[in-house]
Amino acid sequence: MTSTSPQPPIVRVALPVPLGRSFDYLGQTGRQYQRGSRVQVPFGQRQLVGLVLEQAEHSEQDPRKLKAVTALLDSEPLLDPQLLQLLEFCARYYQSPLGETISTALPALLRQGQQPQAAAKQLLQLSQEGQGLPEGALAKAKKQAELLALLQQQAQDKTQLKAANIGSPIIKALIDKGLAQWRQQPLATLAPCAQALRQPSLALNDEQQAALDQLRYHQFGCYLIEGTTGSGKTEVYLQAIEACLVAGRQALVLIPEIGLTPQTLARFEQRFNCSVVAIHSGLNDRERLQAWTMARAGQAGVVIGTRSAIFTPMAALGIIIIDEEHDLSFKQQDGVRYSARDLAVYRARQLDIPIVLGTATPALETLHNAINGRYQHLRLTHRAGNAKPPSLSCQDIRQQSLLGGLSADSLSAIGDTLAAGNQVLVFLNRRGYAPSLMCHHCGWVAQCQHCSARMTLHRRQHQLRCHHCEASAREPLQCPACFSRELIGQGYGTERTEQTLGEHFSDHKIIRIDRDTTRGKKAMQNKLAQIEQGQPCILLGTQMLAKGHHFPDVTLVVIVDADGGLFSGDFRGPERMGQLITQVAGRAGRADKPGRVIIQSHHAEHPLLQTLLQQGYHLFARQLLRERQLAQMPPYRHLALLHCDSPKPEAAEHFLQNLRHWLEQAQAPSPALMYLGPFPAPMEKRKRMFRYQLQFNAAERAQLQGLLSQLKAHLEQSKLPAKMRCSLDVDPLDMM
Ligand code: ADP
Ligand code: ZN
Ligand code: ZN
Q1: What's the rounded Cα separation, in Å, for the pair 681 and 715?
Q2: Ligand 1 pocket member 235 (CB < 6 A)
Q3: Is the same domain home to 165 and 258?
């Protein structure tokens, strides 16, 4: 007997497993499994949440062996077709499994199968009792009376309360007295509105206006705003966003991990009437889901987030802005190694909307695109308002005696600045007391046993710590080789310089900002608040200080050591050095006071350093571009790195050697496609693993992509020796 009953549909699913293929399941007859919806399915012994890619009629697998879908979790697709397409592109381009890529993009609670929840706004309003109070009540408690008066006008949300400077104790007091209460109000979705602003925008200067006038809102275009620090890029972003909000469209703003300070967020919240949501690593799972949901439903007008926010679904996205586009944190360095900046350009093209990349120090890739006309190049050459550019000088510190890493001249400049009532920023990109510990008698150096790295001395805790793995040990009292007691810390870290500065300028506060001093949740905020008070003091810190902050009272910046990038093992070393120096220098004199920057160097005459100081970052970068072209490196060529880590160095090298032979059969080496390696990574050993690399350098992206997908398929089928790990990095930024 032939059955006429319809077949159950085949449901093709992407699962969060490290395999490059999708999986087929049997759906329920008559049910629709829409692309972009989640399903729960059995996988081995487990149940997994996956995403439906399509509903098909046939499977290449034997239908009798297919397992049934356990549950359909979404009646409407969770991800819209364009977002799913973006994720598919990401998986293809970075050679990572689609299921894992999707999983990177989803908030944890959605990965676990929970439902997105409709967002509501918390409003503080008067209770019945509160409404009955006469005007001018609570006169004895001034702040409470103030709040009461506000609420008598209208209910207030948290942003409004914050803007009115009403703290939570005051709110609590009123609630405890039974006079006020919180109410949930469902959020409206964004609609075109003439009144997008809460606070008026600034009158733009000519350059800002010219940049803003170039933007076209209803078509794809990539714009590089290259503007010196303090030139008012953010003001241009804000006004571009305003134009979108007025038209009822949303904005997505990506900023570096470290740049998401309360200051930045406040600036956006204060400006716009709509909800501004932030997506960053400080959110808990529930908050993250809430922000995601608001963006997707169109309740949030502006979404500000770090790297992974590029995957946020947005109901009506109208513009993407990447601030500090050169920043390394936009590239994920493990798992799915995507570049949020590059994906953002894809997304803007897909949606036919503008994308703005802003920075004082464009990445060479971006600058190259601007110079050759693929991006529109907008420049802001002077500072907004009254601020003047800082004056830069390089100080040759060869043969000078240094105190805490600082020359006598630097110390006296710091003293003068403090005496004049201003603040100083001392930049030193190494935390700890000293980057290594050496025996003065026999030359023994404390090495990490698991990494090719020296242990950093942390004197206050009497510890040696490796900054590349978890290893730590007590600071030895004697040399383990010769038993001498003369052990000396070599070089300078922030802890050591802090000590010197403390002894030298005992009347002033030293505010140290590095990963060791900002561990607590509020630590960074507290430190920034201290700086904001404007008292003369010294800020001392690592690159955490270099980015995005606005320190109006800093008039002197001292860069303790500019030399690292000149002789780095990474071909991007000089580019990074130029960006870092320019960014740090840009912290000086941002308000009305003129600034000054002292750069200490052992190579003061180095031509690159001189170009940077005398001609500025833009011409420095153009010189680096010429060098890259000669060296056949990005952005003129395209790179990919295959990493292979193994506890046995020979095993890694051998594996990559074989792989190279295999690949050369598939695609013969040529000037258009060069194979380099295998060679040990610049940092050969890390966390007990020996690290080898095979590098690919291609003239055309397409050819490289072809090779990489062959490689990926081959790797998936190969059985790797025990404990060996391979990973592929397309457009790598970190070569170490
Ligand atoms: P950037 O983002 O380029 O570092 P910002 O937008 O933060 O610069 O601007 C630096 C400072 O200049 C801020 O204090 C800002 O309020 C101020 N500013 C920006 N544009 C103007 C303007 N057109 N007129 C007056 N002040 C401005
Ligand atoms: Zn010794
Ligand atoms: Zn280590």
Answers
A1: 20
A2: yes
A3: no
Instruction: Note whether residue 242 is domain-resident.
Output: yes
Q: Is 164 exposed, middle or buried (0-12, 13-18, 19+ CB in 10 A)?
A: exposed
CA dist 226 and 382 (Å) reads 11
Do 130 and 80 share a domain, yes or no? no
619 in contact with ligand 1, CB cutoff 6 A: no
**pLDDT averaged over every residue in the chain:** 91
**pLDDT tens track for 224-268:** 999 998 899 999 999 999 999 999 999 999 999 766 667 788 889
- Whether pLDDT at 130 is above 90: no
**367 and 222 both lie in a single domain:** yes
Put residue 510 in one of left, alpha, beta given phi > 0 → left and psi -120 to 50 → alpha.
Answer: beta
Task: Determine phi and psi for 55, rounding to 5 degrees.
Answer: -110, 125
> Could you tell me the pTM of the whole model?
0.88
Predicted confidence (pLDDT) at residue 1 exceeds the cutoff of 50: no
Which residue has tokens 């007091």?
A: 173
Cis status, amide bond into 9, omega within 30 of 0: no
Task: Please check the confidence at residue 146 and state whether its pLDDT lies above 70.
Answer: yes
Residues with C-beta atoms within 5 A of ion ligand 3: 448, 450-451, 466, 468-469, 471
Q: Where are the alpha helices (DSSP H) in 132-176?
A: 142-153, 158-163, 168-176
Distance between CA 298 and CA 277 in Å, rounded? 11
Nearest to 255 by CA among 320, 308, 304, 302: 304
| 305 touches ligand 1 (CB under 6 Å) | no
Question: Which distant-in-sequence residues (6+ apart) come within 8 Å of 658 by Cβ?
Answer: none
Give me the pLDDT at residue 562, please: 82
Starting at the edge strand that comes first in sequence, how are the strands of the sheet with 71-72 ordered? 23-26, 10-14, 46-56, 38-43, 71-72
Q: Which of 212-216, 559-563, 588-592 has the lowest mean pLDDT?
A: 588-592
Decide whether any atom of ligand 1 lies within 6 Å of the 231 Cβ. yes
DSSP-derived secondary structure for 658-706:
HHHHHHHHHS--BTTEEEEEEEEEEEEEETTEEEEEEEEEES-HHHHHH
Ligand nearest to the CA of 591: 1
93 lies in the same domain as 151: no
| Shared-domain flag, residues 64 and 31 | yes
Cβ 440 vs Cβ 535: under 8 Å:
no
Which ligand does the CA of 438 lie closest to? 2
Check if 381 has its Cβ closer than 6 Å to any atom of ligand 1. Answer: no
pLDDT for residue 545? 82
Q: Which domain holds residue 39?
A: 10-111
Identify whether residues 427 and 562 lie together within a single domain: yes
Q: What would you report as the CA-atom Rg of the chain, rounded to the nearest whole angstrom?
A: 29
Taking residues 334-345, what's their average pLDDT?
96
Rounded alpha-carbon distances, angstroms, from residue 648 to 552, 645, 691, 722: 53, 8, 9, 10
CATH code assigned at 649: 3.30.70.600
**Cα-based distances in Å from 308 to 254, 330, 542, 563, 732:** 9, 8, 24, 33, 18
Give the mean pLDDT of 526-539: 91
Q: How far is the CA of 386 from the centre of ligand 1 (A)?
A: 10
Query: Containing H/E element for 556?
Result: strand 554-559
* 644-667: average pLDDT: 95
Pairing assessment for the beta strands 638-646 and 673-686 based on DSSP bridges: unpaired
Q: How many domains does the chain have?
A: 5
Signed CA dihedral, 711, 716, 719, 725: sign only? positive
660/714 Cα distance (integer angstroms): 12
- From the number of C-beta atoms within 10 Å of its C-beta (0-12, 13-18, 19+), residue 432 rates as buried
The SS3 call for residue 288 is helix
Q: What is the C-alpha separation between 94 and 86, in angstroms, rounded?
A: 12
What is the phi/psi pair of residue 634, to 5°? -55, 150
Does any ligand 1 atom lie closer than 6 A to the CB of residue 229?
Answer: yes
What is the pLDDT confidence band of residue 20, given thresholds at 50, 70 and 90?
A: confident
Same-domain pairing of 548 and 409: yes
